[in-house]
Amino acid sequence: MSTCDICEKNFTKKSHLVVHRRVHTGEKPFSCDLCEKTFAIGGQLTVHKRIHTGEKPYSCDQCDKIFPDKSALIKHKRIHTGDKPYSCDQCEKSFTQKISLTYHIRIHTGEKPYSCDQCKKTFYHKGDLTKHKRVHTGEKPFSCDQCDKTFSQNIHLTNHKKIHTDNKPYSCDQCLKTFKQSFKLTVHKRIHTGENPYSCDQCEKIFASSFDLTKHKRIHTGEKPYSCDQCEKTFSQKNNLSVHKRIHSGEKPYSCELCDKHYISSSALAYHKKSSGHLEMMKNYNNTVQPSVSISLIEYEEDYIKEEIKEEEIFEEDPLSIQMRADNIDPLSIEM
Question: What is the pLDDT of residue 286?
């Protein structure tokens, strides 16, 4: 029996003690000849080298997945067996991996051992800190192979790639709508149930998604995280920044099918379609628009503010005003 003189752990073999002592000394005598990584155990180096060779000698007998090491295969097999050997002693949750339990326990303890050296934010695990740091560096290491978009997180790239396919595997069991992403289906279903699980802690408003709550909270904080790289304007929503940038680029992607006018936003196009001039043109075109449909620009503006701008109007210029300014149009000169 061999005993560690630092932590008093016992080992049946002296060789095991030698390896264990490297935990205390930080010694990593095994180095990769293809990159700069070093390891405390020779077996770890062997597994690591498979990253460079692409070798995956361990395969699952229930599906087609293959793995570079045996421990990864064992963890994977728990998907098929449903085995969750690691359980929390403070609640009923159990996990397939020990590291998942370690992270979970921090919810109970409140421990956040990883902190950002630029903004002091703290995190439960190192991976979240790594992702967060990209906010400061602007790094976007994940790029789409079908367009020039790049992303700070792999999950964002995975979700983006679905834009390039027509596949919508997630369908609502109460209506005919289908979705490319499961979370969008989850949010959609709340239309049927009326569920609004996210509430603002500063007012009484409730929301169907955490994303909508985050946007709403900027009304209280005045935060405008999206800034134009060509002028000093800032926006609380990314979509409004995209619309604003078209003033600089001159892009007008929304066009009227009757009069061939072009607009920088769908809201501006919708505004145009409600104008008396457009409705008159529709009458002349197919004689199907009834006089009762006509609406004055002032009446529509009230609906527009309620339905389109909502809270955003408090802090930002609406798309129609942006369009008029870009076209040098005086709102009072528009024919009612």
Answer: 63
Work out the end-to-end distance of the chain between its first and last CA atoms, rounded to an integer number of angstroms: 95
Closest alpha carbon to 222 in 132, 310, 120, 312 = 312
Cα four-point dihedral sign 162, 167, 169, 175: positive
pTM over 0.70: no
**Alpha carbon 206 to chain centroid distance?**
21
What does the DSSP 8-state code read for residue 57? Answer: -
pLDDT tens, residue by residue, 156-205: 898 888 888 888 888 999 998 999 888 889 999 999 999 999 999 999 89
What is the spatial distance between Cα 74 and Cα 63, in angstroms, rounded to a whole number? Answer: 13
Identify whether the C-beta of residue 331 lies closer than 8 Å to the C-beta of residue 250. Answer: no
Task: Tell me how many helices (H) and strands (E) the chain has.
Answer: 13, 20
Spatial distance between the Cα atoms of 201 and 221, rounded to a whole number of angstroms: 12
> What phi-psi label fits residue 120: left (phi over 0), alpha (psi between -120 and 50 degrees) or beta?
left
Express each pLDDT in 222-271 by its tens digit: 998 888 988 889 998 888 888 899 989 999 998 888 787 888 888 888 88
Which residues, in sequence order, are CB contacts of 227 under 8 Å at separation 6+? Answer: 233, 234, 235, 241
- Phi, psi angles (nearest 5°) of residue 271: -60, -45
Helix axes 319-326, 238-249, angle to 10 degrees: 10
Beta strand 226-227 with 58-59 is unpaired
CA distance 163 to 180: 8
Backbone angles phi, psi at 12, to 5 degrees: -75, -25
Buried b / exposed e over 31-70, threshold 16 CB at 10 Å, is eeeeeeeebbeeeebebbbeeeeeeeebeeeeeeeebbbe
Name the helix (H) or strand (E) containing 151.
Answer: strand 150-151
Query: From the CB of residue 330, how many other CB atoms can be counted at a distance below 10 Å?
Result: 7
